[in-house]
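LAB NOTEBOOK - FOLDING QUEUE
OPERATOR: T.R.
BATCH SIZE: 2
PURPOSE: Compare the predicted structure-token outputs for two unrelated chains run back to back under identical settings.
PRIORITY: normal
REVIEWER: second-year student, initials M.K.

ITEM 1
FIELD SEQUENCE / FIELD STRUCTURE:
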Amino acid sequence: MKLRFLIIIGILAAASLAAPEHSYAYIGPGAGFAFLSSFLFIIGAVLFAFLLILTLPFRLLFQVIKRKKKHGTAVIDRLIVLGLDGLDPELAVKFMDEGKLPNLETLRTEGYFSPLLTTNPPISPVAWSSFMTGTNPGKHNIFDFLRRDPRTYLPALSSAEINTTGRTIRLGPIKLPFGKPVIKMLRKSIPFWKILGEHGIFSIVLKVPITFPPEKFKGLLLSGLCTPDLKGSQGTFAYYTTREPGGEELTSGYYIHLKDAGPVYQTEISGPPNPKQPGTELTIPLKITVNTEEKSAALNYDGEDITLQEGVLSPWISLTFKAGRRARIKGIAQFFLKSSSPEFELYLSPVQIDPEKPALPVSHPLIYSIYLSKLFDQFATLGLPQDTWALNEGVLTDDGFLQQTYQVHEKLEEIFFHSISRVKKGMVCCVFDTTDVIQHEFWRYTSDNHPALKNSETPKPEVIENLYCRMDDLVGRVREKLSDRDLLLICSDHGFKLFSRGVNVNTWLFKNGYLFLKDGLTTGGEWFRDVDWSKTRAYAFGLNGIYLNRKGREKNGIVEDGEVDGLKAELIEKLAGLPDEKMAGGKSITTLYDTEKIYTGPYIENAPDLIIGFYPGWRHSWESVSGKVERDIFIDNDKAWSADHCIDHRYVPGVFFSSRKIKSEKPAIWDIAPTVLHLFGVKPPGYMDGRILEIENGE
């Protein structure tokens, strides 16, 4: 079965590489188009693909022999690791005790269940990086979603760095970038599935966060969280509407005002940057014809027609952006008609990389996403395809968001169960982020007085309970696939708590003389635009971090090495227990953690100097995360994003279930990697921080 599986992928490789289109790739911010394929490259790739197919039986035979040698001490044949991002242990226990999660309850009684210690900070990229490497952040180099550039104080994605080659090809008067993009993975240490592959153990890894760009190993991988859209962003939606523009810009999308009287509107779909005209984007004409009586809209784009019904998410549509006479960039997206009247409101999802003709690799090998798209049709490739910000800003409805989320989930389920059926010996690891995004957005309905309720639709308190029941059903269907020689491990990277109040730590630093603004200003713009670095000693950055403006590290640093320890102690003393007067004396911050004391490894220098531990109910305000200095330190969180986990790690452990009993107590997320290696008879590397958990019949 595996032989046929790999041959099909090889044939698809030859077919896809033989396609006569020229291809570009784009990723940002600011990276531009990445390559222009040539005829010789295509011919060479085709010949190489057929050579792989011809030699495949011999290579597989060699791998089988090698695998038999190295599987001698394995105590299982197959491991299935099911990641349910954000599944909360308190809610899981509550619903199990109420008899609503029979499959998880069976694992609790016949196998094992425990809260799972998470990383500090308990942020998904950080925790899943520790999951896959068995190390603390000081060894894997991921400390947040964002990293700051000490030369500019500006943000960049923490997981990857993308640059163009600098080479160009001239087509008449136009210069086009030429060559593959330079995509550098910033996560360090080695994922456990790569180590398994080095020992002849095959793995399929699906949507685990921080796996873009996809790394080579002896297995198959579909990239997860932090994979970009076709614009190179982490998700930029479009909002077409007849409503007059408001005073504020959309945080993660762009507003297109339809000024004509209608019912016919001429507009466009915006795609990746235009290589011929820097500063502009490639576009596709879009014609919208509104039928208010039928509550529908007919769209014409790219030579295609589709009719939308109000309140119904469209199927995936294919988009082709033309960058030249024969140059094409493929993308996929979905529409949602929020309203046909009295105001017309239309949502377009971020335009994602087409898995069938990827402008950038979203899988390993590249042809794996092509294979999956041939088998299952189009599927989401964006790292976080559920558009939480479109819901936050009222562009998507609750129901539209749930349609989008569960469509993504169901497609991933298909791929997951297909993978389980193909792997008889080895590992299948899949992370579903459905549990994370729905809890972020719908926790408000479990509270009677959350600030977001004033802007919310009809309360939907059943959504989270339905979510847990649905995940329990998924677990039950996985359990049906298990044999006596299989093991199922279920884990989450963190839990959840209500997020009602935002804390602008940058405002506190300003009011207390640690951060200074230019020209006597009392408020400052995004990304520290108005900060006077010649006087500033500390600034908050990201979701949990505080950096000192250190001399010799930051471009305009002023804090001397001898002042560092004293300044840290001063901030810890003043911020611990910070009171929020509106909350009847409630304290917002537990303590600040000195990263030099909680991390080990070669990458501590890239970490924040201090990690803020928030009490449940509080978190960094949205404005503080983006480097703004506001008038008030505390602000209500009135967004649909009403629950979070970027608080003190002690309050938000994950979950850990096993189909076999485990003797070890207090498991941690970094224990999973060495335990998996041990189960397959592979000795964990000495640098791993995790311990081997004692699993029954898995000594």
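ITEM 2
FIELD SEQUENCE / FIELD STRUCTURE:
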Amino acid sequence: MKGATILLVDDDEVLRQVLRRVLTREGYDAIEAGSVAEALERARQQPPALALIDLRLPDGDGVEVAQQLSQQIGPFPFLLMTAYPLRLRDQPELARAFDKVLTKPLNLDELREAIASSLATNSAKGAPTARRQVEPRPEERAEAKPSPTATVPRIVPPTPKKSRGLKWVAASVVFAAVAGLAVALPSVGTTGLQRFFAPAPTHPAAAPKAESYARLISGNDEAIELPPEVIERLDIVSRPVDTAVAPRPLEMAGSLSFDPNYLGRVQTRFAGEVVALGTIHGHASNDYPNEPILRYGQRVGKGQLMAVVLSKDLGEKKSELVDAVIRLWYDESMLAKFEELVEQGVVPVGTVMNQRTLVGQDRNAVFRVELTLRTWRVTQDEIDAIKEEAKEVYEMRTERSLKKEIEWAKVEVRAPFDGIIVEKSVAPHNLVGVDFDLYKVADLRKLGVMVHAYEEDLNELYSLPRGFAWRIRAGASGTLLKNDGIQQVGLIVDPTQHTAPVMGLIHNDDGNLRVGQFVKATVDLPAPANVVSVPPSALVEDGDESIVFVQPDPTQPRYVRRRVAVAMRLRDAIYIRTQPNERERRKGCQELKHGDYIVAEGVLELQSALEDLRAKK
């Protein structure tokens, strides 16, 4: 029943692709599903004439699929695939819904006959069959041959599903390669598979055309020679090895942040009460109540008044300076009088010595208080004003002013640099400590950028010089951002994410960028030394070795299999070492140099053909 729609239900994607190719070659229309839910959905969209179903699926089993398809669409043939025939022997009721049970790995002749027989029986019963008209392709008509019975050798024996993952995938890949070669390589020697896939002859007396055959080169089991028509049919393309090795682009995601060098925490030097806030013109709000006070998002200049705090500690320390200065002046005047009286013989010399000791102590007290005030960033003008107040009190020209001494207790908090208020946490009459952030001011003309690199890339990033160029783009818009290059690679790896931060600076002169904004950074890491570049299609890998095919003479259709050492794998290129290390040489890896011609397309077919010829030999 050529043209019938066949539903393939199996969670092995590679096997589904192989079976789809087989059925398409036979003229059927194949649709795929990897689970029970997907199978039901695909069947509703395109009702099948037959279903080929795996017994074990991620969200159910083949029996459940068959039952639900029968209920929703109606009766039609079901074929069961399983790698567990013993389960059906123990539970024969599982197979009742199916026309036939096929054991994995599949026998292609048995599969073809089961499909044809089930469709024919269903058609004879009068059941509807989904069809499509399929015209054979020209090459199929030209190469049509009789199709004697041929059984494809099994790739691997059935194994329990929990342990067969990689083995079954590998088997399916090989199976796919062999299936493809059965159609594409009529001259390589895979005659049994070729007969299975080839369409039926258009006339019983049609004779096969003469064929040229691939052959092993004498004395070298790793070399194969192909006739020109086979090279053309397989689309084998050779090209020279590329030494213009492109840098490896490393992409990292992250976000923008404040530049820590220009993020200021505005704090008071003394604990106390906030008695006034700064205004936009740099005045205290108490002195200019009609001026608007500073708010979040407003710009401030370096040294601009931002708050006034009344501090008991500062007031007391300034008063202590007044007391120390008055005491010093008093003791100095007494010393001068005692020295006059000693000369007159009125007082003993010991009295003068004691007074000199007191003066020394007074001077030390004054120095200690002044040093403390300077440490607290009290200016020299303020200290001189305190001493002037002390002089007036000492000379009894005025009494101590309570109002003035209260002013001494006020601490002015000023902006550390030009910037924008990005955080405000203070209000009038708040009690604040020395570790409390009244404001945070940031210069947003430059922002920090922090992205995250996986630890396997850190060694290469550490080797880059400071300022190494990278491309940073804003998240959604993809706008390229002006930056100063990589500034630092973090020294600590996150044990959960296995990443470390990579940091730099972004120019934000127009102010359009925001802290926390998502960005992507791309670094073009230098390519490794002593490598050549080949396209991914030129390499055959089985997990243990990497193989390319070299064409020693570009004018001769001879190809030599060569094991190579892979230095790095990228999305669009693979870097091969020109000089394998000792360990790689012991595994059979050879050099690949600039100027060598390699097969860039058709490598899988060459590999399969070579193995086929070696096996026959």
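REVIEWER COMMENT (ITEM 2): Residues 312-408 form one domain.
FOLLOW-UP: none requested
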